[in-house]
Amino acid sequence: MDSPDFTKTKATASPSSDSPPVQESPVFSFINNLSPIKTVKATHIAPAFPGLSSPPLVFTSPRVNPYTETSFLKRRSQHSELSGAGIPKTHDEGKEFADSAADPVKPLTQLQLGLITDTRDCKTKNFVETHPCSSSGFVDEYLADSTEVDCVNSDQSVNPHLEHSSSVLEPSRSGLIKSKELTLTLGNKNDNATNSRTEAQAPFMTTEQAHEYNQGKQTFIAKLTRSEKQRNDELRFNECTNIESSLSVDNAFRREYYQEFLDRGLRGEHQDDYDYCPPSLAGALHNGQLYEDENAGSIPNRRIENAVMHASKRRCLRFEEAPPCTSGKGDGSLSLLEKVSNSEPPTSTVESEMVESPYVDLITSTKTQTAASLPPRSTGKSRLTVSKPSGIGLHLNSIVNAASVVRGATSIKLADRYMGVQVMNSASINVRRCPNSLNVVEKDSAGGVDWRNETETSVAASSATTQSPHSVEFEHHGPIHEIRISDSHSIDSYEECNQSSPNTKRKRASRNIDSDGCKRCNCRKTKCLKLYCDCFSAGIYCDTTCACQECFNRPEYEDTVLETRQKIESRNPLAFAPKVVEREDESQFTPASARHKRGCNCKKSMCLKKYCECYQASVGCSNGCRCEGCQNAYGKRGEFVDVDSGVSEEVISDKDGTEIRESTFDEKLQMVATRKDSNDSPSLTPLTPSLQCFDDTHNVSKSRVLPAICRPSPQSALTIISHHKNSTRSPQRNSENSDNLMDTSKGLLDVGSYDWREDYENIGLETTSPRCYAVPTTCHLTPLSGPGSLAITSSASLTTRDLTNASQVQLRPGSHCLLSGSSLHWRSSPVTPMHRFGGMKSFQGFDSEKGNHDLLQDDTPEILKDTSIPIKSVKVSSPNKKRVSPPHSHNHELGTSSSGGLRSGRKFILKAVPSFPPLTPCIGSKGSSTIQNMNNPLQDKG
DNA sequence: GAGTTTGAAACT
DNA sequence: CAGTTTCAAACTC
């Protein structure tokens, strides 16, 4: 409402924690933020105050890209977090902090987040009705608890949300007691709410309580675990189940604990404890919770710093490349699982993480289960694996990480092989990205099921630049901790660095890869708002470790970043898609299996130097490359044949490669997108795939905000195409293939009710999407979890809730590990970052059996599709430029989509989801797993 | 560390 | 759409 100046003032003040005037009060800021006008303003100019600007965006376009935002958000500069949030160091401070509403910034950010989702709006209304005075708090809650919200949406009634909001927000902001009371009341009323709100509890808990909680939780878990074990005949399954169950268990435990807690609270035992947030607990808690906790503040400064640092670390949102992350950053996320399931301390960073994290276990088990079918990849491929990470849907930025990652052979393997790889990657990515996000861990542990967590994490991080309480746990982890520490140091000096002469930074940054494994940019003129910037292109914020000058790729300039991103995407929907798509062949999983989406154009480097993006990504050149004299050690251009995708089939031996290569991944994607455009309503998606993904993610967290957004993505179409090809396997030209695909995809989309079981059967694990980006897809899948009928419509209309449900499904102990396993198959590259982002590409698609390798191409395309779909107009210019124009006529025909074609199409859909990425944050993996789980339920039903 | 080379991205 | 320019990373010295 007010001029930006006002906002700025607030922002400035906030960090200091000086008691802000009335105007600064959260409520006031909230109101201000609400005004659409502000939103508009915020976008560009106000780089100074990120939070303010964002709200408008939210309204205008519900964060069109939740995913995108997430990704960007993920990498949060410590600086922003610290300044903005003004974390309370002591309990008292926390209270003061809350009371003073000193950090307008944070609230604003949160508001933005909260506003984004429609669902939230609804909730907000409810909340407001209930607690008119706590608007700010409300906002915070949303921000903090995207997860919870999601949960609520998905599983439960809205009430929980209210409860949560009341409990969480209030404590942090103002009337702690009130909030508590409200919480209690609500809790009593709604058990479900209580469950969903486990996080909310944290604020109330004292250290002792936290311990108690943890212990009780562990015990509870142990019980459950035993029960589950008994259920399961096979150990492997047990393990998987445990992981999955752990999540659910955790929830259940929380529920119980919460009940008890409420009882106590009623007796007045905990009244003073509202603020306290047990660190350990925090770890277990979702980001949102953490965030709240932080506000509450009993966390030691050091921890806070660490947390902040972790949080601030750049994240490879979309890239899955986990390696680096895996090694170091994953722990944070893992912590929860570790606590619950594993007590063993991580011996080595990489290994320990891998081993310890339930997620890992899950993956492993999943792999085993799933396939079982999966050939043991472990052998020697580890190294390849490493390269792979870059693979599916990876941004080059992420790729870098991968290289470093190699050290953890085990982890690598995991990552490599499956979509699961993606999952891991995503998971690991998440971890990396957000050391903070315990949620991630949970997610991971869950088998990547719970997107909500991820979303939340990302959201929280993004929105608030939150300090992640999670980081606290990280401290416990030896290796990780160390890593982080270094980061923290860098972070601490963040401002200084920024201010320090660019040269200095540059030097420092040059050639450096941050601990996360992400490249550091060194942009001087582009303000890190162009694709020249690795960070920006990877969908992540620049970090303190970056040596960039006049950087706008920071949380503070979120609006600017998003706008810029959208602009770029409008020009090229694939701009933020993972550059490297990995295709995994059953037989082989090698760097060679992955390819650069657009291919390189090397003239002098012969693809033997890092100038070559293919080489840099540790992937071989493909027919799509236009390089001259290719000597790529990972695979020469002519050598690579895309057998899987019909499209790829087109690729012919390349003499020149350039001419021969008929379609690059991008082209394929474009084709798909085009078809879809024709078929799909334009309305569906945001231009940028990433955005879509983001939206999806967002949706997940928020619960259905963007149902519309979740349309069948072009990616899916691609997938479908590939799939179709598989079925048909005719060496058709791309155009034909595309047509077929389109048809298939269309059918998928159209099909209101589809029997997923069949798809699964047919598809197998493939359906799962590797990447975070997959999330959207996941959404589609989610429906599956529910009643057998997912309609394509669901894909289009799937709401966050659906996703959430899906995630929940995964979480369910009962869910088959297989599902997760299936997810593993997917390889996405998020990162999409990671995890987001993105995977892109997940090739995974290949079923060993089916030869889904199509997916590889598809993956990337899928991502694009998602974004592109709406965009028909958007042409993705592929380097290759040759593009087969897909026959539109088919599209229409197919448009009605018959269920018959659907299978393949549906499969694609699943895949498609993952494809996008960057995103998800890294996110993807969960989605995939979720999807799988969803599928399983269906199967069960079936 | 400075300067050059390289190829992608952006621009025209 | 092709050609040119700009940019930042990669590389060399």
TrEMBL record:
Polar residues bias locations: 9-22, 728-743, 926-942
Record Pfam families: TCR
Keyword set includes Transmembrane helix: no
Keywords: Nucleus
Localization of this protein: Nucleus
Main location: nucleus
Domain CRC: 517-635
GO MF terms, alphabetically ordered: DNA-binding transcription factor activity
SMART domains linked to this entry: CXC (SM01114)
Residue span of region Disordered: 1-26, 367-386, 494-514, 723-743, 874-903, 919-942
GO terms for cellular component: nucleus
Alphabetical list of InterPro entries matching this protein: CRC, Tesmin/TSO1-like_CXC, TSO1-like
Entry's family note: Belongs to the lin-54 family.
Record-linked PANTHER family: OS12G0605300 PROTEIN, PROTEIN TESMIN/TSO1-LIKE CXC 2
Name the record gives this protein: Putative transcription factor Tesmin family
